[in-house]
Amino acid sequence: MTAAVIFTKKEWLESWRTHRFLILTVVFLIFGILSPLMAKLLPALLKGGLGGVKIAVPTPTSLDSWTQYYKNMTQMGIYVFALMLGGYVSQEIQQGTLVNLVTKGLPRWSVIIGKAFVGLLLWFWCVGSAFVMTWAYTAYYFPDTRSPHVVLAFVPLVIFGFFFLSVLVLGSILASNNYGGLLFTVVVVALLYMARMVKGWQHFNPISLISDNMKILVGADALTKLWPAMVTAVVLALGLFWAAIKVLDQKKL
Amino acid sequence: MTCANFEELDNMNANWEVFTTYWPFLVPLIILELGLMLAAVIQVLRHPHYRIGNRAFWLVIVIFIQIIGPIAYFVFGREDQQ
Hints:
The complex is a heterodimer.
Chain A: H1 2-17, H2 20-49, H3 62-84, H4 90-95, H5 97-103, H6 108-141, H7 150-174, H8 178-195, H9 208-211, H10 213-218, H11 227-250
Chain B: H1 3-46, H2 55-64, H3 68-77
């Protein structure tokens, strides 16, 4: 276990020194501020865009702000995250930076454990800081009672991150370059979106974790409705991490 | 006030009004974007080698394209240190 702790420390230091942590934080904070701002500006933009035509634009509510937040997180945030972590493992294999550590007795599985742990921390930190930003602005600018389950709606997003990370790590190991891992991740997410069309699978599809957040927020759906998807996501993620360890064991460093 | 006058006044004050209304959003946004830009500019100047492009190219991208420019540099432009 000490090996995993050591590698986790190394991984953390790397995230810090390569500015990965800093860039992700800044970008997600920007997303967090942009979400309520977009909600606030949208009626004005609509009016401006239509010129003199008068239409009834409803006053924005906290729901618009949260809709923007989940849109930003799931349509931009996860891809920025994937871009920044694209060469998460492949880069180390390419540059041979693991050779020294492994030949000195670092078990290969600790590489994956360390990377998974730091990646998860990064994800939680990113979506969390954006969440706090959006929450603060929303509470101040849209003080209504339309979004009662703010924290509950956020939980599935964090769990989806765990799954997303496992896909990213496996993709990064399978591919021999930085962009192969990205491509793998995008393809998996696209396939999951397509699988949404299959009626019976919807409850088990991890994509529900990032598409049904608004329903939970307003209280239309209980969080318990997403249990199957959450369990599937976690089990799949553990399976993918296990596969990643197996692949890395066979891989020539 | 006639319609024409109002429009003129509106145009004059529009930018300022937007700022006074939305400054709690805009000030942190500007600080964050400038911070990201500065971090990228410092990196570009400190490291003479790039995976693609050259220094002038990356400086233009990083300074003139907000948010996406610096991310593009950190992801595609930065040469990994061996």
